[in-house]
Amino acid sequence: MGLREPTWSETFSLAKNPSKSKRRNRVGRRVQRSLGIPQPPPFHSPVYVRHKFRYVASASATFILASNYMGYLLSVGKVANSSVASLFYAFRIRSIEIWGPSGSTTAQAPFCSVDWLGAVYTGNNYVSDRGISSTQPAHLKTRPPAATSAGDWMNTDNALTLCTIIVQTSAVVDLEIDLIVNNGNNVQTNAVATATVGNVYAMALDMASGTHVLVPEAYATTF
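-> structure tokens emitted (223 positions)
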């Protein structure tokens, strides 16, 4: 037996049923509220990168970490065998952690330090550690204090001293940092001896001082 179409009187009766009409209205309002977006949500255009870079010291060194070099932590080849361009234009250092070499690998007592440069009208903030045996090497982890040059976001086009780092041969240095990718900003370039156009390189952490002792771990690099 086939289905029949409802008569006009039956359709009119259903339409006039108050309870069914209210249910339909409530469902309709819920659907409208779930789909109704008065305006697009806030949009943040900067591309943020948070990463921990690792470096291994090929020799003992004392070097200055400067703000204008932070943009070069990752760089792209610009001119073949001539220069690289920075990928970042702003940064915020989260922490620096150093593990000194064991006492058996260095003639000197294992030692490492970070000396944060104080902001205006404040003194420096010095952190250091010294190993006491071959099984207990020097180790420190430090964050930029608020009242120092590195205590907040900075642009990479400002050549400001952030801190002075002392390491010994075979020391391991971890730099955890927040970075903002260039977005039409003035790209800085740095001279290198070898580079392929378009290739990305992680640069030595002490490249600004010209020593190239702190070489990045497990990443292509160039000088």
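The helical segments are 8-15, 18-35.
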